[in-house]
Amino acid sequence: MYEFEFVKPTTLADAIAALGAEEAQALGGGQTLIPTMKQRLAAPAVLVSLTGIEEMKGVSIGDGIITIGGATPHAVVAEAVAGAYPALAALAGNIGDPAVRNRGTIGGSLANNDPSACYPAAALASGATVVTSNREIAADDYFQGMFTTALEDGEIVTAVRFPVPEVASYRKFEQPASRFALVGVFVAKYPEGVRVAVTGASEEGVFRWTEAEAALSVEFSPDALEGLNVSPEGMIGDLHGTAEYRAHLVKVMTKRAVAACIG
Amino acid sequence: MTEVTMTVNGKLMRGEVEGRTLLVSFLRDQLGLTGTHVGCDTSQCGACVVHVDGKAVKSCTMLALEADGAEVATIEGQADADGSLNVIQQAFQDHHGLQCGFCTPGMVMSAAALLKENPKPTEDEIRHYLEGNICRCTGYHNIVKAILAASGQEAAAIAAE
User: What Å distances lie between residue A44 and A27, B25, B64, CA to CA?
Assistant: First the structure.
């Protein structure tokens, strides 16, 4: 890792100021960024830790909305929303491993937008709102492709607001070495309709499977997906699975998620 | 260089580190606490697991400066006050929960974190909790037995997988 200047502000205002420096980068729990820096794929001059900012930590639940501070670790989310949004709790409680969940944060995951990360699927399927240091961004506008988001330089994910669905489920087919999703599908049923978000599969990162949403909004059962197929075009193909395999898994995991919702 | 201060196994420790100094490097190279191992250096293997403010973390994937002011527990602080092995360590010895021993510090620290959260875990819960700890000798079976025994449960009955 190249040397950098480390700063750990205790307020959001100080963090925003620190991120104004040349080549500055925000650090959440570091579970992706530190390995990336070790490989010298990232080399910020200034690293601004967000873990000391109390106003960005914690979970509040009310009026059908769950608000999670951007610097809240996965392990805390898993425990805090177990009653209010069990599918989200289950997702958070199955990211990486226990030690990773004690450090990694929701804001860090969403800012990084790894194409195989779990949280982007939850945020997109829930129609969440990403709250940043200067605006609010709808999940539909936030995710803009692999490792790409609507965030601008120096913009911090301060919180994420999830509308609580009637029922939801996340099914992850794990890549067994990394435990990232080979394909993960989050299905969430709201009064306005069903939303289906897929991670791990596409070269474009997390995406909504709109044909499945339409079919499931008419009939919420695995059978409603029978006639649908996902094209392998644009799917990730690598040593862990071909594009065709991932395309197939999208449908399989969606069916399993729906079955889990109604079972 | 920046001064860093943390309580390690109950003792207040100070040192000078760079921004990029990892917690595991500080523990091993500056404090001489070489019980915490670096296996993969990519946060996969868990040989470097220590507790920071009571939570298991991978010390190869945390900066030393992030632990400034924290309470850190390492394998060196696990023995009982009289120097005898604690319940988990003793169970690892009794059930031969190690082969080469390289992963053992991380296994013991993860086991300690698990039993604090869940004093009577099932075999499945133990195996799930150890997902981030890799034993390249594939000694998992006896490790799971040791943790079952350390939690006061019958360990003899579990079948090999």
Answer: 10, 20, 17
Distance CA A231, CA A250 (A): 10
- What is the distance between the alpha carbons of residues A88 and A122, in angstroms, rounded to a whole number? 7
Shortest Cα distance from A86 to chain B (angstroms)?
Answer: 18
Beta bridge partners of A5: A46
Contact between B65 and A8 using a beta-carbon 8 Å cutoff:
yes
Return the bridge partners of B50, or none.
B57
On whether the CB atoms of residues B76 and B31 are closer than 8 A, the answer is no
Q: Which residues contact A64 (CB under 8 A, 6 or more apart)?
A: A163, A164
The dotted CATH code for B2-77 is 3.10.20.30
Rounded Cα distance between B143 and B160, Å, is 12
Global ipTM: 0.95
Residue in A with minimal Cα distance to B132? A97
- Nearest CA distance, B142 vs chain A (angstrom): 20
Query: Per residue of chain B (161 residues), what is the pLDDT tens digit?
Result: 999 999 999 999 999 999 999 999 999 999 999 999 999 998 899 999 999 999 999 999 999 999 999 999 999 999 998 999 999 999 999 999 999 999 999 999 999 999 999 999 999 999 999 999 999 998 999 999 999 999 999 887 777 65
Nearest CA of chain A to the CA of B20: how many Å?
A: 6
Q: Which amino acid is at B10?
A: G
Q: Collapsing DSSP states into helix, strand and coil, what is residue A130?
A: strand
Contact B44 A47 (CB under 8 A): no
Domains recognised in chain A with CATH numbers: 5-49 (3.30.43.10), 54-163 (3.30.465.10), 167-262 (3.30.390.50)
Nearest residue on chain B to A100, alpha-carbon basis: B57
- A5 and B19 within 8 Å at the Cβ level: the answer is yes
DSSP letter for B36, please.
Answer: S
